[in-house]
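During the no-cost extension, the postdoctoral fellow (Dr. R.K.) reprocessed legacy sequence entries with the updated structure-token encoder. One reprocessed record is reproduced below for audit purposes.
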Amino acid sequence: MATFIPARVGALGARSIHIKRALGRLSDDYVVRTPLRPAGWAPDFFIQHPVQGWLAIAVSDAPYEALAADQLFGDGESDAFDVLLARMAALPVPAKLVVLWTCSAEEVRRAAARYEAQWGLRLVSKAEFLDNGETLLPRLAAPIATGTEQALMAQYFAEAEIAASCTTRRHFNRDNTATLQRYFLDVQQESAAKQDLLLPQGQAATIRDHALPQEQAAISRDIAVRLVNGVAGSGKTLIALSRALLLAELHPQQRILVLIHNAPVVADVNAQLRRIREGSGLPANLEINTFSAWVHRQWRNVHQRYPHMPPNSRMVEELIQHFRSGYPELRLPVRRLREELDFINESLITSEAQYCHASRSGRGFALRPAERNAVWALHGAVTASLRAQGMSLWSALPLDISQSEDRHRLEKYHHVLMDEAQFCAPSWFHMVRLAMHPGSSLFLCADPNQGFMKSRLSWKSVGLDVAGRTRKLRKSYRTTQANLASASMILSRHTQGDPEDFLVPDLDGMEPGVKPALVYTDSPQDAVDRLVNELGACVQDGRFALSDLLVIYGDQVQKTLLYGRLCQRFGAGSVWWLNKSDQRKAPPGGVRRSHLRLANLDTATGLEAGVVFLIGVEKLLAVGRYAGVDLEENARKLYMAMTRAGLRLVVISSERVQDSIRDAFTEWTPPAAGQ
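Re-encoded structure tokens follow.
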């Protein structure tokens, strides 16, 4: 069956059903495209095939009387038909078809004798189109040159174009001619971005009522949910942003919200959009934010004051350490107890009985009934102590809002899109739903292979029924075959989750590439020196700009030393430390400057670059030497970090890697250029 982008064919009313049924008989390689917001007039739809080429199709209601050759004077219908034919003839495709919906086969034959040769197109009747479309249309389609195809896409499907600065595909383009390469979402990506855009809102309620608390079920019956599951580099963020921008332009009176998991990605995305939109900024009705910043603002809206939070995690851990003395049965580390308090809040648990019966699947450690009772008491003690100081846990903000009588003060949205949704807690989804208008849409993008946070919750466990409403993207455009194969191999060897949650990538047709490089150094200090030299070698020959490079660092490196050395080598204004407080929202020197990006491992999800360096990640590489390490969690983190790279990945380590993953890398022994 052909792929329809979007699902409904043109603005053709009841005829769309009959047309789609006829077009659906085309083979799987065909794409039926309907322009959503063309610049000027456009045909009703196009047929596209990778080999057969393109065919432009328009449907006309003109009666035969308006087409008859014996008319002495034109009328409105005749003039309109002539305008349609002239517009079709001017299209930059050689194959054009006009379906005369109200004419018989004999009437079309007569009209064709007059019009086809004059305008260089084909006329067919409704009956011929509906009955023989699957054999007729492939014969009419014709190939077009690559440049013509790109121009056609840019004119009629501009929303599918990707700025070169937003994709690592440009690193794989070996064409050095003067022709400028343009990049577009592939068929599956574009189809996912445009799914249901032409459907009346509220048709598909997809939240499972019985999976939610009573209040959540009551407010969840009237939203449409769609999920895109994709491997790393499959374009999920591009899909979400493309859909959001398209929604913002199609519905200027509706509010659209894009929630991205971490602040560095939000800053990077906003900087890229400002560059490619030439300073025009985002549409006024579109907001891109992190969940934490957004929920902080919503809390202020509800309570008309600022929330006060513990200044750091140490304060919370000290409170836990203080109160746990009353519960000797709790032998878990303080970090685990802090995570469990967050789990209670993020799971919208409000009573001890509810907590004692709550599923803790995927938490990584078990709790006996007596321990659960003690944890609940500890949660109450810590919460009360913070409240006495006018504070609360970050994780409690959504729960607090949901219990407030002033929820009517929430800012409301018509469309919400959540990227990296595999990291979102149940309370996040509930909070988002509270802020959505009836008949609104929720669009989720996720990579189940990266689910190393939020206990790898299933969609059912948070009340989302995505069965039959999920698109799976297995092809990666960010990285190479060798890099993705190495990362996937590491993940498959160290994960114990449901095989259904593991998305096997499609490696066919990918850039072959080379295995990730592994560089050993004698000490962490030597690792920093080697990193600086390798980065210098990348930009010295002019093959890469600073903006093509990304450094991801873990806990086993002195981050201030690393930042200082990079600034010393490349200049402080050319290094964007995405985790630095004064650089979290924008790079130093403005968005038009080329920057080397630097990001912490835990906030690197969603980032990408042509060349990526990993440093200070010894715990991920040599997990057997560290006590209390979660093998699966670290494997998922390493998979995420490795798949940030578009062309090359270089890992610098002062310790030997674990034997079970050594074959995923190629060891580099020569020193970097300039050493």
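The chain has a mean pLDDT of 85. The longest strand covers residues 436-446. The remaining legacy entries will be reprocessed before the final report is submitted.
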